[in-house]
Design goal:
homodimer, mainly alpha, 74% helix
Chain lengths: 232, 232
Amino acid sequence: MTAPGAPQADPLTDPDYRQAVTDLLGVLAYGELTAFHRLADDARHAPSIADKAALGAMAVAEFGHFERLNARLLELGADPEAAMRPFVRALDGFHHKTSPADWCESLVKAYVGDGIASDFYRAMADYVDADTRTLVVDVLADTGHADFAVGRVRAAIAADAKLGGRLALWGRRLLGEALAQAQRVAAERDTLTPLFTGGPDRPGADLLELARIFNQLTEEHTRRMAALGLSA
Amino acid sequence: MTAPGAPQADPLTDPDYRQAVTDLLGVLAYGELTAFHRLADDARHAPSIADKAALGAMAVAEFGHFERLNARLLELGADPEAAMRPFVRALDGFHHKTSPADWCESLVKAYVGDGIASDFYRAMADYVDADTRTLVVDVLADTGHADFAVGRVRAAIAADAKLGGRLALWGRRLLGEALAQAQRVAAERDTLTPLFTGGPDRPGADLLELARIFNQLTEEHTRRMAALGLSA
């Protein structure tokens, strides 16, 4: 029992919680690393050198996030490679199944795909200690994708009416694959569970709360598709 | 005529020289941008997350160089995209013809291919004004490729004797393609010529000097191949 007004126990002393945070930082770190490689690679489709450079700058920002997460894992005494490894198959699988065929598909994926992932991780951040939360929210900050992608995609749809239908299907596929991979991670990796079930000093999320999170994910996805001028 | 002791005329006031410097910075900028995308993409072959991250860090350093060259082009009143465009075909062609088939070929290309390009541009830097030279020498500084590639390739060859023969052929092909593309650029883009022929205030390079530069390129290439444990 903690006396009222006494400093709260450091939640990281609880080994289950510590493992859950290591996992959360691990999946985020590998996510940022793959986002970096994917953005740099998608630039192949860029129609101009300026677009190639713009995508490059976003990729570099993602790499900066990867480095911060990596540094925090080391600080926690974790082996970053071991922390990331459990999520390699799911994240590589997502990117393999959603390889963009052209420039507009790349942009929709950068905006809509990263948006879904960010919403999901940001929701998890409500259940971690303040230091971890600050880091997670920081590395999920928009690196400029949003405005860039929205502007380019809207202009492309305005110039080619048929494109809207194809990209709307693409957006739905991205959501489906993202949810399928998230379920796979959750099923394979139950070390993340303590974040949602809570602990002596931390409130958990109940089923209603989880339902709310998934509702919000879909609403935010619909909002992003609308921003692109697409039906969700 | 400049009086002895008077400040030297700014060579950038000569439009031919200015165009030559714009071209030099343009080809370097596009070279760094493609190096960035290529390193990030080659990471697909990386055998571990740590190797993927190491290649990512090098790619990010190349992007920093690209940004410096871009900023200098803007400072000179040039349009960076226009300055890079004349070199897109030759550089994309080089990368298209030398796409690595595996991790070791990626490493040899990062080390040997970038080495040839750096030697070439560093030799050109002897013929430009001090500000431009400082920038060129800075952006050509090794970003960590060398030690990383040498260590990894030597270990791979030690583990697989046949690999050395294949990589030696690969190194020769890289040199051949690099020289072919350099000749193509020189033939298509004679605006770079004033750098070698000199001007009223700048010494040029004579044929003997050019022969010396090419000799040195081949010698340095041989030295790098030897560092990898390969015959040139």
